[in-house]
């Protein structure tokens, strides 16, 4: 039998004495060498290595951080969404250090030098604190104008204030007037007394009234279900067939709703020119004059909610944002009193009534989030207080699109309230939050792709209005989520004007794939709105807001990252869309065009300053990766962060995903040209930002999100 010779293996664990003497240690305690030499045998505990999972390590880091936090701190809005034993969201959403470690645990070693100017941070809200206010020189409405930090409306005003200050321009240098409620469309009405008979004169014929109703139904589509069609039409026939004055008072809220439908219908079909009052103002003023000013609605509560919601929609369309917020908030509070935000019993109330309540609630929910986000105000209802379902069994196409709009509206409000809530955020934390947002957007993209493939053969030509609106809202979420990267670069470059040197390397640490995907969404938005086969909404404000947001985003992007050629196609498209709205009598679009022209002028001046001072030109290679210039070799480290020019190491889940260059330059999905950004592209970027573990998920277990049928990992 052949005896195999074995080479003696070095003991993995050695005592301190053997290690210092560089001799083999037996590994026993005490070891043979220490016994022979009569030495104290000690083993270094620091030498021991323990192999644990990355998720377990993250949990330990979060537990250590939570232990250090002072007890008794009130939970944040985000932390209300944790489920069971899930880690408290506040330890991830509100902690810069832990969130940065989730993206790159090695960055912890740089904490000792946090005071350095080269720390990788994102100016998610690059406007000074305390909040910016503008003094009203005329003081006709108020002493000052508050520019809310998260307000989409005040973004233009805040940019104008910041850029005119940093560029040392005269404060009156081509700066348009800041319009408040009623400045564009002055509107007033006299409230009728309870004893006065209702004025039913001057109403259209029943045929024309039905025509206007159908026009309103077409424009609102399935996205805003602010009236029950069968009930409304039946009562309208009764109104014209009976004593109009008597019918108008019983029920009173129905007549208010009827007048509001006439106001909206006239606004949709009329093309006013050079008129100070908005279209449909005559019927709207009559409706508001008889609107009850109390909340006790009795059995007419649903009619009251619908009427208030329609009033809020009309006011929001004519740029009376604050008044719209009051009306929508009033409707939401009446809905609270009726329990519409909860699961109502179908056996007692009937299936039709419960369905009407559910549709009305989620229409209110969407409207409230849209108006509140526009003003930068907190939402009227917290998601944790809602239990009524959005996804129900046997959902049809319209119900699915309605459900997806609700979830996209919820996501948009989450983005604004989470990413934009602080002035400065560490890059790691921002990336982790954005990664979760993009992961959720990938899920929504998959739903849209399935609907497009099944119902429309992957073409935008025959897509209904609600589907088109859904895709635009989808891109709006991407634009808003990636905008802080552009704002951060703008803030840093403005701060460096007039200085001899610039630490431009820090810009290369930003994830250029995120910047590129935001640009792509903005370009796709303008492409959809410019499509002659689609219907451009010229009264409701949504298409106007989509147009302006996309144009502003591309103005910033093309100034901060100049393309190889001077391509102003996006600007021409945006101005063309606004011109079409102006031709239809939309004075709000005229104001927005003036504001856009002013912003474009400021960025042109900024580009001239950058060129004059010889600051480094930043570019996006294929709209995907950053370049510092042909002869530059930027630093490969930024406080331990993985440089953006070299994507992070893929995890197991991303091993089969192509590089981001391939994702951004080659369309692997034919739907990519229809939707703009496919779920595949989202997931490719998600894989590059970090690992597969998601430390926090928004609303993962709220009952109303899944209805017991469909589970979504994010709002």
From TrEMBL:
<dbReference type="GO" id="GO:0006351">
    <property type="term" value="P:DNA-templated transcription"/>
</dbReference>
<dbReference type="InterPro" id="IPR036864">
    <property type="entry name" value="Zn2-C6_fun-type_DNA-bd_sf"/>
</dbReference>
<dbReference type="InterPro" id="IPR007219">
    <property type="entry name" value="XnlR_reg_dom"/>
</dbReference>
<dbReference type="InterPro" id="IPR051711">
    <property type="entry name" value="Stress_Response_Reg"/>
</dbReference>
<dbReference type="InterPro" id="IPR001138">
    <property type="entry name" value="Zn2Cys6_DnaBD"/>
</dbReference>
<dbReference type="GO" id="GO:0000981">
    <property type="term" value="F:DNA-binding transcription factor activity, RNA polymerase II-specific"/>
</dbReference>
<keyword id="KW-0238">DNA-binding</keyword>
<keyword id="KW-0479">Metal-binding</keyword>
<protein>
    <submittedName>
        <fullName>Fungal-specific transcription factor domain-containing protein</fullName>
    </submittedName>
</protein>
<feature type="domain" description="Zn(2)-C6 fungal-type">
    <location>
        <begin position="14"/>
        <end position="43"/>
    </location>
</feature>
<keyword id="KW-0805">Transcription regulation</keyword>
<feature type="region of interest" description="Disordered">
    <location>
        <begin position="625"/>
        <end position="665"/>
    </location>
</feature>
<dbReference type="GO" id="GO:0008270">
    <property type="term" value="F:zinc ion binding"/>
</dbReference>
<keyword id="KW-0804">Transcription</keyword>
<dbReference type="GO" id="GO:0043565">
    <property type="term" value="F:sequence-specific DNA binding"/>
</dbReference>
<dbReference type="Pfam" id="PF04082">
    <property type="entry name" value="Fungal_trans"/>
</dbReference>
<feature type="compositionally biased region" description="Polar residues">
    <location>
        <begin position="633"/>
        <end position="665"/>
    </location>
</feature>
<dbReference type="GO" id="GO:0045944">
    <property type="term" value="P:positive regulation of transcription by RNA polymerase II"/>
</dbReference>
<keyword id="KW-0539">Nucleus</keyword>
<dbReference type="Pfam" id="PF00172">
    <property type="entry name" value="Zn_clus"/>
</dbReference>
<dbReference type="GO" id="GO:0005634">
    <property type="term" value="C:nucleus"/>
</dbReference>
């Amino acid at each position: 039998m052949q005896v195999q010779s074995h080479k003696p293996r070095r003991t993995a664990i050695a005592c301190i004495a053997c290690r210092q003497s560089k001799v083999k240690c037996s590994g026993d305690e005490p070891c043979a060498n220490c016994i022979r030499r009569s030495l104290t045998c000690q083993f270094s505990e620091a030498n021991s290595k323990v192999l644990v999972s990355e998720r377990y390590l993250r949990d330990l880091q979060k537990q250590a951080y939570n232990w250090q936090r002072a007890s008794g701190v009130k939970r944040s809005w985000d932390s209300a969404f944790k489920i069971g034993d899930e880690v408290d969201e506040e330890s991830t959403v509100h902690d810069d250090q832990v969130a940065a470690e989730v993206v790159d645990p090695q960055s912890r070693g740089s904490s000792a030098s946090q005071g350095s100017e080269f720390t990788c941070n994102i100016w998610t809200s690059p406007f000074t604190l305390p909040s910016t206010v503008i003094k009203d020189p005329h003081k006709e409405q108020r002493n000052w104008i508050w520019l809310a930090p998260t307000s989409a409306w005040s973004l233009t005003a805040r940019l104008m204030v910041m850029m005119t200050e940093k560029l040392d321009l005269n404060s009156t240098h081509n700066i348009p007037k800041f319009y408040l409620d009623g400045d564009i469309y002055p509107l007033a009405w006299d409230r009728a007394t309870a004893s006065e008979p209702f004025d039913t004169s001057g109403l259209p014929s029943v045929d024309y009234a039905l025509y206007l109703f159908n026009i309103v139904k077409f424009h609102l589509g399935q996205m805003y279900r602010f009236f029950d069609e069968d009930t409304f039409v039946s009562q309208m026939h009764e109104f014209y067939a009976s004593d109009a004055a008597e019918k108008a008072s019983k029920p009173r809220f129905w007549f208010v709703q009827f007048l509001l439908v006439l106001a909206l219908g006239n606004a949709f079909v009329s093309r006013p020119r050079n008129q100070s009052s908005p279209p449909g103002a005559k019927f709207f003023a009559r409706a508001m004059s008889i609107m009850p000013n109390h909340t006790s609605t009795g059995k007419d509560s649903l009619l009251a909610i619908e009427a208030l919601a329609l009033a809020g929609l009309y006011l929001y369309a004519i740029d009376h944002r604050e008044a719209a917020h009051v009306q929508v908030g009033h409707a939401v509070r009446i809905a609270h009193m009726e329990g519409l935000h909860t699961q109502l019993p179908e056996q007692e109330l009937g299936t039709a009534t419960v369905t009407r309540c559910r549709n009305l609630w989620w229409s209110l929910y969407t409207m409230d989030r849209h108006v509140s986000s526009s003003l930068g105000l907190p939402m009227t209802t917290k998601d944790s207080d809602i239990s009524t379902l959005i996804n129900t069994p046997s959902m049809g196409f319209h119900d699915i699109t309605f459900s997806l709009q609700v979830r996209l509206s919820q996501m948009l409000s989450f983005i604004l309230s989470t990413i934009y809530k602080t002035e400065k955020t560490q890059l790691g934390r921002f990336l982790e939050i954005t990664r979760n947002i993009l992961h959720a957007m990938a899920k929504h993209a998959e739903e849209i792709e399935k609907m497009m493939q099944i119902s429309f053969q992957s073409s935008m030509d025959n897509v209904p209005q609600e589907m088109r609106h859904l895709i635009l809202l989808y891109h709006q979420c991407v634009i808003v989520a990636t905008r802080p990267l552009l704002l951060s670069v703008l803030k840093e470059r403005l701060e460096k004007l007039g200085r001899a040197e610039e630490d431009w390397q820090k810009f290369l640490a930003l994830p250029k794939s995120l910047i590129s995907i935001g640009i792509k969404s903005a370009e796709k938005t303008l492409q959809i709105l410019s499509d002659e086969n689609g219907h451009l909404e010229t009264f409701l404000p949504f298409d106007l807001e989509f147009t302006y947001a996309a144009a502003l985003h591309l103005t910033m992007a093309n100034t901060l990252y100049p393309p190889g050629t001077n391509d102003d196609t996006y600007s021409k498209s945006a101005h063309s869309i606004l011109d079409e709205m102006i031709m239809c009598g939309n004075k709000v679009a005229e104001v927005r065009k003036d504001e856009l022209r002013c912003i474009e002028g400021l960025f042109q001046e900024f580009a001239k300053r950058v060129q004059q001072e010889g600051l480094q030109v930043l570019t996006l290679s294929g709209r995907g990766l950053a370049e510092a210039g042909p002869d530059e070799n930027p630093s490969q480290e930024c406080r331990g962060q993985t440089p953006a020019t070299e994507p992070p190491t893929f995890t197991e889940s991303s091993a089969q995903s192509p590089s981001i260059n391939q994702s951004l330059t080659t369309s692997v999905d034919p739907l990519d040209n229809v939707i703009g950004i496919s779920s595949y592209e989202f997931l490719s970027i998600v894989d590059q930002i970090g690992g597969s573990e998601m430390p926090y998920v928004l609303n993962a277990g709220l009952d109303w999100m899944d209805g017991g049928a469909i589970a979504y990992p994010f709002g």
